[in-house]
Specification:
By secondary structure, this protein is mostly helical. The protein is 73% helix and 0% strand. It has one domain. The protein is elongated and about 85 Å long.
Length: 78
């Protein structure tokens, strides 16, 4: 029984070591790719966005109809 437990513990440590090694290599690869991307593709200077001004020309009756429809829909969903 002791030999079986020893084999199990050994297998557990080998498995944990492989996972740790893989995750370490993954972190190194991600950091390397990040530095390469930042070197060859630097961030473009921020541009100011022009937001178009939209004026609403919806009349009050349309707003009332939409509000009533939403109210009726929400009451049916309960």
């Amino acid at each position: 029984m002791s030999e079986l437990m020893g084999s199990g513990v050994e297998l557990m440590f080998v498995g944990m070591g492989i996972v740790f090694l893989f995750l370490t290599m993954l972190v190194i690869a991600i950091n390397l790719m990040s530095s390469l991307v930042q070197r060859f593709f630097p961030e473009a200077p921020a541009t100011t966005l022009v937001v178009p001004v939209v004026t609403s020309t919806i009349d009050k009756q349309t707003v009332a109809a939409i509000t009533a429809a939403l109210h009726q829909y929400r009451n049916k969903q309960k």
